[in-house]
Amino acid sequence: MESLEKVEGAKGRKRGARRDPEANKQLLITATLDTIADIGITDTSVSRICERSGLSRGMIHLHFGGKDNLLTAAAQQFSAEYYAEMDRMTDLGPDASPEDRIMAVVEADLSEVLLNPRSTKIWHAFRGIASSHPGIASYSSTQDEKLVDTLRRAFREIAERSGHDPGLADDATSGTLALLEGMWVNYLTDMQGFSREGAGALIRRFLAGLYPGCFEADLDE
Amino acid sequence: MESLEKVEGAKGRKRGARRDPEANKQLLITATLDTIADIGITDTSVSRICERSGLSRGMIHLHFGGKDNLLTAAAQQFSAEYYAEMDRMTDLGPDASPEDRIMAVVEADLSEVLLNPRSTKIWHAFRGIASSHPGIASYSSTQDEKLVDTLRRAFREIAERSGHDPGLADDATSGTLALLEGMWVNYLTDMQGFSREGAGALIRRFLAGLYPGCFEADLDE
DNA sequence: GTTCTTAATGGACGATCGTCCATTTAATGT
DNA sequence: ACATTAAATGGACGATCGTCCATTAAGAAC
Fold it and tell me: Which nucleotide minimizes the distance between its C1' and the CA of A59?
């Protein structure tokens, strides 16, 4: 019985490619993000989102109960995708040096996968309306606990190994994140003139100053 | 004749306190910024702005030709006010040390005059829609030429005096601005938990690392 | 094949959007 | 006092907003 149901269900969904609520919810979220990146959050209306998704106008109310909830869901998914990709790109072996782990975060954040026209526009659009949309505010923070922890632990390791002040770790962590934040703004403001390598080198320089003897420029990359 | 006109004009404006196009334009711009800070840029409509300013709904089209132009004018004025205040607060004597001049910029940017709930909300709201509003984009950049120049020159002076690499100045400049950018985001995200002193100390620490021997923590302040 | 359930549609609805303009009001010139 | 000029008003206008629901259509159960 169960296996039969599953097979039939799979067939049905595959054949029609419609009647798949979950897939359509996803379609709406993607269309929302694309629309925001394309024409700005001010002009992102229910009609425009449905138009882009190819679904009917009633779907948003049906699946999300309203535009606001869809926006929140889109922000949540966008944030989740960012951190998932960040995790994937910073999954170095357990024997990687703390410097390498930190710079992996920096370089991931500056890579085209995470830092591109679409993501920057969406990110800043959400941040711009976060103050008046409590639901979205939760997902517009850079202070992801896990990421903060990763950085702080790495900085502490460096301090232990090279005898630096362990109290620096907190400042180094939020400073690194602040620098990355600033780089995103620079990218948004001037995508043509922005240099990923330059931005990475700048942050490395700042960290090298904070932890003398560490973060020496690697000429390999 | 002329003096008589002036007197009468002054009297007339003072008595009625109306019929003053320039003052009303100003009123509209202020109402626009206040509305954005209050209810968010998404809900900032012509009606709401006029409601807050106490003027009639036709005024926006009359004085600015449309909502978009008003928004642009508001962004421009907001930006101008920021830099004017920044200038005022960093006008140290000509014999001030480059470190003091740099830290004056940092502390001004973190002071309540420039960094407060209203300004942060407005700033990020404008930045969020900048991508789709070319007119506003011009005023949402941190890269004010004059400010950049002030910082760069100060960093160069430090390099000359203490024998550091002069090539650092550019990185130090944009790094400082990036750090400040990140601090504004932190403030927006968590106004309660934000510490102006902590933020200033963090930036000083980063700069002290970049320029060993300089930017030692001053215990006076 | 028929019934039942639920996904999906698309138009109706009132509210509000931004623009525009005929009209009123206030100050100036004669 | 009257005419002239410019500022200011507030309602009309069509377009679009977001929400909701009666209807249609598709797949599952029988």
Answer: C8
Q: Checking phi first, is residue B17 left (phi over 0); if not, alpha (psi -120 to 50) or beta?
A: left
- Output the CA–CA distances (angstroms, integers) from residue A27 to A22, A31, B66, B85, B132, in the order listed: 9, 6, 35, 47, 23
The answer to whether the beta carbons of residues A129 and B128 sit under 8 Å apart is: yes
Total-model pTM: 0.92
Whether the Cβ atoms of residue B110 and residue B196 lie closer than 8 Å to each other = yes
Smallest CA–CA separation between B209 and chain A, in Å?
A: 4
Is A131 within 8 Å of chain B by CB? yes
From first to last of its 221 residues, chain A has per-residue pLDDT tens of 333 333 333 333 333 345 788 999 999 999 999 999 999 999 999 999 999 999 999 999 999 999 999 999 999 999 999 999 999 999 998 899 999 999 999 999 999 999 999 999 999 999 999 999 999 999 988 889 999 999 999 999 999 999 999 999 999 999 999 999 999 999 999 999 999 999 999 999 999 999 999 998 765 54
Burial of B85 (0-12, 13-18, 19+ CB in 10 A): middle
DSSP B77-110: HHHHHHHHHHHHHT---TT--HHHHHHHHHHHHH
Q: Which nucleotide is nearest to A61 (CA to C1')?
A: D19
DSSP-derived 3-state class of residue A118: helix
Q: What tokens were used for A127?
A: 């941040």
Which residues of chain A lie closer than 8 angstroms to B124, CB-CB? 124, 127-128, 130-131
Q: Which amino acid is at A69?
A: N
- Interchain CB contact of A34 with B (< 8 Å): no
CB of A39 within 8 Å of a chain B CB? The answer is: yes
Only one residue has tokens 């993501």, namely A119
Cα separation, B48 vs B31, whole angstroms: 9
Q: CA of B55 and C1' of C18: distance in angstroms?
A: 16
Residues of B in contact with A180 (CB under 8 A): 182
Contacts of B206 (CB under 8 A, 6+ apart): A171, A175, A206, A209, A210, B175, B179
Are the C-beta atoms of B132 and A40 separated by less than 8 Å?
Answer: yes
Q: Quick check: B183 and B198 in contact, CB under 8 A?
A: no
